[in-house]
Specification:
about 140 residues, alpha/beta, Rossmann fold, five-stranded parallel β-sheet, 5 strands, binds 1,3,4-trihydroxy-5-OXO-cyclohexanecarboxylic acid
Length: about 140
């Protein structure tokens, strides 16, 4: 089982960026967490981050024929990007949307998610644990197929 974990803009600044919202763990710790969790559940994990919308689209497309599931936190592009929505639809890979913070309790503009329409599940506000929960969800889904 191959799971791709894809993170959008400013998530490379985890641990530095607004720690009261996103916590004190850094991006490297997030990658270590998802890779260790992958090893525990029998999944090979790739960890990708970009601050650029087109690069995120390219990475989603690269998953085609390779990944069995995608965990994506599109960060700010969640609220604006039809291109990321279309890329997830295009590859047809089961995808879980994750947000570290509870976007439903923040500014109104964060209540809108373009990518959600292409996702099998959304997990918000569980901190970094949301990523491992998303992986568990995908494992169950993939194994049921
Ligand atoms: C985020 C929430 C987004 O609104 C924000 O732009 C982010 C991170 C989260 O993980 O909580 O960059 O996706």
């Amino acid at each position: 089982m191959n799971i791709a974990v894809i993170n959008g803009p400013n998530l490379n600044m985890l641990g530095i960026r607004e720690p009261e919202i996103y916590g004190n763990s850094g991006y490297d710790a997030l990658c270590e967490l998802v890779k260790a969790h992958g090893a525990a559940i029998g999944a090979a994990v790739t960890c990708y981050q970009s601050n650029h919308e087109g690069d995120l689209v390219d990475e989603i497309q690269r998953c085609y024929g390779k990944a069995d599931g995608i965990v994506i936190n599109p960060a700010a592009y969640t609220h604006t990007s039809v291109a990321i929505l279309d890329a997830v639809k295009a590859v047809g890979i089961p995808t879980v949307e994750v947000h570290i913070s509870d976007v439903s309790k923040r500014e109104d503009f964060r209540h809108v998610s373009f990518v959600r329409a292409a996702c099998v599940k959304t997990i918000c506000g569980h901190g970094l644990a949301g990523y491992t929960e998303a992986m568990d969800y995908l494992k169950t889904l993939i194994e049921a197929k």
